[in-house]
Amino acid sequence: MLLVDSSKPRIFLAPMEGVVDYPLRRIYSQVGGYDIFVTEFIRVLQEPVTEREIFKYAPEMREGYSTAEGIPVLVQFLGSHPEALAESALVAADSGCVGIDLNFGCPAKTVNRHDGGATLLKDPMRIRTVVETVRKALPPKYSVSAKVRLGFDSKDHAMEIAKAAEDGGASWLTVHARTKIQMYQPPVDWPLLGRMAQSVKIPVVANGDIWTAQDAELCRQTTGCQHLMVGRGAFADPWLAERIRGIRRSDFNFDTKELLALVERFAAVSLEHGPERYVVKRVKQWIKHLGRNFTHFALNFDTIKTLDTVEGILERMAQDNALLYEARQDSTPARVKVYGALNEGVVFVS
Ligand SMILES: Cc1cc2nc3c(=O)[nH]c(=O)nc-3n(C[C@H](O)[C@H](O)[C@H](O)COP(=O)(O)O)c2cc1C
């Protein structure tokens, strides 16, 4: 069975290095609403990677590359050496993977300097060769997908890029609707993404700047793509996929208790896999992004920023949350003053 076809719209959680790792995937799998996960990129140079290396990025290997809730996890490779990528794909297949995603979109200088990621957008034929070589190496039951941008420094070759992936035999194509030189700056070009999608027969997954359910709707209308991939928007709102599906209300102010529980679980799982100082960084990183939507939740981020233990951060957040709930029950209905526990400032909550 194909993971992505026209039978059902799919919502991918975007691969994000240093963000969407194993602990976060575990939490988002429990949250629900997402159909497919992709590992952070695994770099392949001249030599194929080992199973051990793949396992570092995809501990789900132990469970047949699936989360406890049954969400498939694709292995993403980044490189330009077709044979090394094909052999790496075979290693992943032997370890039980479901599919391989090939990264042709990474804009990082270090990656591009080593002729990987978005560099290949300059020459669509190279994308075709890589996809074709990996596709030919793997039996058909494994998907081989490609993730691209609109181009490197211009959008002139967008159609050729889509065609290259299709001609190489990609199972589907994910398009991040920006050029490489745009990095993550707006605007995204959804209309061009839509024209790319229309120009090929394989499914196209639309990606870029879907922050809300309304964005998702507009993206679907503009591009004609039913499949979506959400990255930073999902990091800033774990329930984004459920909101897109219309199975969760879009009021951020009432999710803070659940959110706190998610952050606690994320911290606990992360501590099983990494040193505390790294987990502290990751928890702060997430809280900061969540603050974009859950402004009340990130009430005292300036204080949280200074804390250096997971326990300290969680305690502080629990205190802030309790104050917030108290304030909500306060008889002053319109604007309520919430004082941070350490009295650093006054935040108005409507
Ligand atoms: C911090 C960060 C790390 C990323 N790492 C990867 C990666 O490992 N592989 C990949 O294909 N894309 C990566 N991306 C790109 C995202 O998958 C996605 O294409 C991009 O963020 C646009 O989607 P969004 O607007 O929904 O965030 C990364 C993006 C960010 C912000």
Give a written overview of the molecule.
- α1 links the parallel β1 (11-13) and β2.
- The protein has helices at residues 22-31, 51-57, 82-94, 109-113, 124-137, 158-168, 190-199, 213-223, 232-236, 240-244, 256-273, 276-290, 301-304, 310-329; strands spanning 11-13, 36-38, 42-43, 73-78, 99-104, 143-151, 173-179, 204-207, 227-230, 336-339, 346-349.
- It is globular.
- It has an 8-stranded parallel beta barrel, surrounded by 5 helices.
- It folds into 2 domains: 11-250, Alpha-Beta Barrel (TIM Barrel); 253-349, no CATH class.
- The protein is an alpha/beta fold and 350 residues long.
- The chain contains 14 helices and 11 strands.
- The protein starts with 10 loop residues before the first strand and ends with a strand.
- Residues 14-19, 40-41, 76, 103, 105-106, 147, 176, 184, 207-210, 230-233 line the site of flavin mononucleotide.
- Using only C-alpha atoms, the radius of gyration works out to 21 Å
Helical fraction equals 40-55%
Shape: globular
Q: Biggest β-sheet: count, sense, barrel?
A: 8 strands, parallel, barrel
Give the strand content. 5-15%
Structural class: alpha/beta
Under the CATH scheme, the architecture of the largest domain is: Alpha-Beta Barrel
Structural domains: how many: 2
CATH superfamily of the largest domain: Aldolase class I
The level 1 CATH classification of the largest domain is Alpha Beta
Q: Could you say which small molecules are bound to this protein?
A: flavin mononucleotide
How do the strands of the widest beta sheet line up side by side?
1-2-4-5-6-7-8-9
What's the number of helices? 14
Total DSSP E strands: 11
Order of helices and strands: EHEEHEHEHHEHEHEHEHHHHHHEE
Uncertain parts = 331-350
The separation of the N and C termini measures 49 Å
From the 3D structure, determine the CATH topology of the largest domain. TIM Barrel
Averaged pLDDT, please? 91
